[in-house]
Amino acid sequence: MKLYDGGKIIFGLIIFLGLITIPFYFNAGKAVAPPKPKLDTPVIQALAVKECVKPKEIMRAEHMRILDDWRNSVVREDDRQKIVIGGKEFTKSLQNGCLKCHSNKKDFCDKCHTYMAVNPYCWDCHFTPKENKS
Q1: Does 105 fall in a domain?
Q2: Could you tell me which residues come within 8 angstroms of residue 54 by beta carbon, excluding any fewer than 6 positions away?
Q3: Residue 51 lies in a domain
Q4: Distance CA 71, CA 92 (A)
Q5: Which of 65, 84, 88, 119 is the most buried (most CB within 10 A)?
Q6: What burial letters (b/e) apply to 67-76, b meaning 16+ CB within 10 Å?
Q7: What is the pLDDT of residue 38?
Q8: Residue pLDDT tens, the chain, 134 long
Q9: Distance between the two ends of the chain, CA-based, in angstroms?
Q10: 68 alpha-carbon distance from chain centroid
Q11: Which domain holds residue 52?
Q12: Would 3 be classed as within a structural domain?
């Protein structure tokens, strides 16, 4: 089999590969470190033992699954019982539970969600909390 216009085909392939790899060249070496959520809210600072519902590593990885489970049990099953972990009671609620301590949505939630390029749907139902300007 004879390759007609082989030079044009090879040239076209080189141009195609060059265009496809442009995003990799522009982003080379531009890795950004993940943000660290700020835990300096007045409620957290006042706690003697700074504990959440689960350990920090689990909360970072699975908080959305936990919130989804809470939502399903409260909204769909009408299970509003508090969760007792380590002798402490926690309310199954984003606004009355999580945001009591983590009241800095902009520095706590939004930075990580922006970094991960996720758009949570929490605020489709919940009111966006008003933050104290400090």
Answers
A1: yes
A2: 62, 66, 85
A3: yes
A4: 8
A5: 88
A6: beebeeeeee
A7: 81
A8: 577 788 888 999 999 999 999 988 888 877 778 888 888 888 888 888 888 888 888 988 899 999 899 899 998 999 988 888 777 888 888 888 888 888 888 888 888 899 888 998 888 888 777 766 54
A9: 75
A10: 14
A11: 42-124
A12: no
Query: Using CA atoms, how far apart are residues 96 and 77, in angstroms rounded to an integer?
Result: 19
DSSP secondary structure, the chain, as one string:
---TTHHHHHHHHHHHHHHHHHHHHHHTT---PPP------HHHHH-SS---SS-HHHHHHHHHHHHHHHHIIIIIT---PPEEETTEEE-S-IIIIIHHH---HIIIIIHHHHHHT----GGGTSPPPPPPP-
Structural domain count, the chain: 1
What tokens appear for 123 in the block?
């605020």
* Residues 53 and 83 sit within 8 Å (Cβ to Cβ): yes
Instruction: Answer yes or no: pTM beyond 0.70.
Output: no
Q: Cβ-count burial of 108 within 10 angstroms (0-12 exposed, 13-18 middle, 19+ buried)?
A: buried
